[in-house]
Design a protein that fits this description.
The protein is built from four helices and four strands. It has 140 residues and is mainly alpha-helical.
């Protein structure tokens, strides 16, 4: 069983897949950093100093626990908000990753040799022509 497992791991496809997963993971981190640390601050500055990561719509403000003596009347409730700025960051990250993947696939496809199409077989005589020849040879 151990030998089979070792043979499975040593196959080229498994190693290629492992390398691809690791590369994709860190490629994603690089793109996230590009969007969050470089692009979004510039975009935020251009539209008036807005930090997209902090954009949110507050549904309910945070409340603190109210106590009377040793009895808790209401519990502390954290802020309830929709963080649409983070959502915008993720959309931009997705678009950049999709563009990068498109460029990689496009470059790969161009690097491949175009497949030569097989030339169609030369057209021979049709069945009707063959039957006519047989008829003519029988007449003689």
């Amino acid at each position: 069983m151990i030998k089979e497992f070792k043979a499975f791991l040593m196959k080229g496809n498994v190693l290629d897949l492992a390398v691809a997963v690791i590369m994709a993971t860190y490629f994603g981190h690089i793109i996230n950093s590009l969007v969050n640390d470089i692009l979004m601050p510039v975009v935020g500055k251009m539209i008036g100093g807005v930090d997209f990561a902090q954009l949110k719509y507050v549904i309910q403000d945070a409340s603190e626990a109210v106590m009377e003596g040793d009895v808790v009347i209401t519990d502390a409730i954290g802020e309830v908000a929709i963080y649409y700025g983070t959502f915008i960051n993720h959309i931009i990250t997705f678009v950049i990753v999709a563009l990068c993947i498109f460029m990689i696939v496009r470059a790969y496809n161009k690097s491949q040799k175009p497949k030569e199409e097989e030339a169609p077989a030369p057209a021979g005589p049709s069945e009707i022509d063959l039957l006519k020849e047989i008829r003519d040879s029988l007449k003689q």
